[in-house]
């Protein structure tokens, strides 16, 4: 009874609290690119068991469209969502198969909204052919019919920061070879700027803000190269429990920081 009363009080107060945060936010300081590690689905599921969603992945996926709406409201330009890491392939075949199906359904739902430009980032060769082809088709469609002034949504699937850097360097070397350059010439030309041209996120701004849910305070290799100057925000809420007020708190924390960028 007491917990129900507390829940009702919180439900009544949170909209007021949200409006208060919004009124004090300087949206001219909104990050252009926000990266999110969607963590905590399985721990959420342990505390909120559901036989139809034993690992919480489905309920986590249901949060994504709502979250992207909050990003639109805040005038964020690019969002990168880490949906599946290279390490996740170590999970049991049963859980991995279920997770891949949910990811496929989620990407279809994002595409069906026709609201955002969707790009798959990651080592697609690690994925089953049905999913990798789906991601290629959606990314190609977004490139050909890119919607102006729409949110860019990167879905990081089969993603690992070290793998991305290795892939970028390999692509640079192969491109240099096509241009008739020797290995020595390619090495002499190699710079950070050149590597950036071959990253999965090439052409997009680096993320100013990275958010990780579930209370874990590490990046785990997320956007390893791009996050050199990013601000980090770690939230205690599990991803399925992540609320608009949590996102606003992250934006508030970001806007309050003095970003010297090494100067």
List the helices and strands and how they pair.
Blueprint: H1 2-24, E1 33-37, H2 41-47, H3 57-73, E2 78-85, H4 93-113, E3 117-121, H5 129-144, E4 152-159, H6 161-178, H7 183-189, H8 192-196, E5 209-212, E6 231-234, H9 244-256
Parallel strand pairs: 1-2, 1-5, 2-4, 3-4, 5-6
Helix pairs in contact: 1-9, 3-4, 4-5
What does this structure look like?
- This protein has 263 residues and is α/β, with parallel strands linked by helices.
- 48% of the residues lie in helices and 13% in strands.
- The chain has a single domain (31-255), classed as Undecaprenyl pyrophosphate synthetase.
- Strands 3-4-2-1-5-6 form a 6-stranded parallel β-sheet, sandwiched between helices.
- Strand 3 (117-121), helix 5 and strand 4 form a beta-alpha-beta unit.
- The protein starts with a helix and ends in a 7-residue tail after the last helix.
- Pfam families: Prenyltransf.
- Keywords: Transferase.
- InterPro entries: UPP_synth-like, UPP_synth-like_sf.
């Amino acid at each position: 009874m007491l917990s129900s009363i507390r829940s009702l009080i919180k439900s009544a107060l949170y909209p007021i609290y949200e409006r208060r945060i919004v009124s004090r936010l300087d949206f001219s300081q909104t990050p252009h690119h926000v990266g999110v590690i969607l963590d905590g689905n399985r721990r959420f599921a342990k505390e909120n068991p559901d036989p139809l969603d034993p690992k919480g992945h489905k309920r986590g996926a249901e949060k994504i469209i709502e979250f992207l709406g909050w990003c639109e409201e805040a005038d964020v330009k690019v969002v990168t969502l880490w949906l599946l890491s290279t390490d996740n392939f170590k999970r049991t075949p049963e859980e991995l198969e279920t997770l891949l199906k949910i990811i496929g359904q989620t990407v279809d739902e994002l595409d069906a909204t026709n609201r955002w430009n969707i790009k798959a980032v990651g080592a697609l060769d690690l994925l089953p052919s049905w999913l990798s082809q789906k991601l290629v088709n959606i990314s190609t469609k977004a490139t050909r019919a890119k919607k102006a002034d729409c949110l860019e949504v990167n879905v990081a699937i089969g993603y690992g920061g070290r793998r991305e850097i290795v892939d970028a360097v390999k692509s640079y070397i192969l491109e240099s070879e096509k241009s008739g350059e020797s290995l020595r010439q390619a090495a002499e030309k190699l710079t950070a700027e050149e590597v950036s041209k071959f990253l999965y996120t090439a052409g997009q701004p680096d993320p100013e803000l990275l958010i990780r849910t579930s209370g874990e305070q590490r990046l785990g290799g997320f956007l390893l190269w791009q996050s050199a100057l990013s601000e980090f925000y770690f939230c205690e809420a599990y991803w399925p429990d992540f609320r608009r007020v949590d996102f606003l708190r992250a934006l508030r924390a970001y806007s309050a920081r003095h970003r010297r960028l090494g100067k």
